[in-house]
Amino acid sequence: MSSSKLSVTLALMIVIMSISYEAYALAHKDGYKIYGYPSSPNTRRALAVLHEKGLSFDRITVNLTTGDPQKPSFLPINPFGQVPVFLDGHLKHLFSLESRAISLYIETVHRSRGTKLLNHKNYKKMGTETMWMYVESFEFDPPASILGLKADYKVVNETETNLGKVLDVYEERLKKLEILG
């Protein structure tokens, strides 16, 4: 390799490393914090994105079984008394109380890091991906959450039927995707 090509290659490597370091430093400089309960699906959703992006964060456990979200010490953090709560230290304010919004924020801010979770270059695909996040939010999550909480078999049977309809829609849609072919 000629010395000019080597110089260009080294310069590019330094630029790439500095960009990665800047994203890394941004995430760590003031820190991310996530308040949540380990077995909460919503907390797990936000944690999964943080892990997929390779970001570090402070995890603060808010115990749902003892009513921590409704306690006066937690309500200033989230007046709705729910988890997860995501704090972005460099913004100096609460960022988000909703796991899908947290996920979108992290993916957007750190789109060049870790796993690519949304297609930012193709807005049709990104729109479709976002639409299915909303379908999951409004159609799948409510009945699935009820199944995890209720011991009333009548409610469970009704919920299973509703959830089955949602899963049928998912299955038909997924059959048409090239990535699963």
UniProtKB/TrEMBL annotation:
<feature type="signal peptide">
    <location>
        <begin position="1"/>
        <end position="27"/>
    </location>
</feature>
<dbReference type="InterPro" id="IPR036249">
    <property type="entry name" value="Thioredoxin-like_sf"/>
</dbReference>
<dbReference type="GO" id="GO:0004364">
    <property type="term" value="F:glutathione transferase activity"/>
</dbReference>
<keyword id="KW-0808">Transferase</keyword>
<dbReference type="InterPro" id="IPR004045">
    <property type="entry name" value="Glutathione_S-Trfase_N"/>
</dbReference>
<protein>
    <recommendedName>
        <fullName>glutathione transferase</fullName>
        <ecNumber>2.5.1.18</ecNumber>
    </recommendedName>
</protein>
<keyword id="KW-0732">Signal</keyword>
<dbReference type="Pfam" id="PF02798">
    <property type="entry name" value="GST_N"/>
</dbReference>
<feature type="domain" description="GST N-terminal">
    <location>
        <begin position="30"/>
        <end position="114"/>
    </location>
</feature>
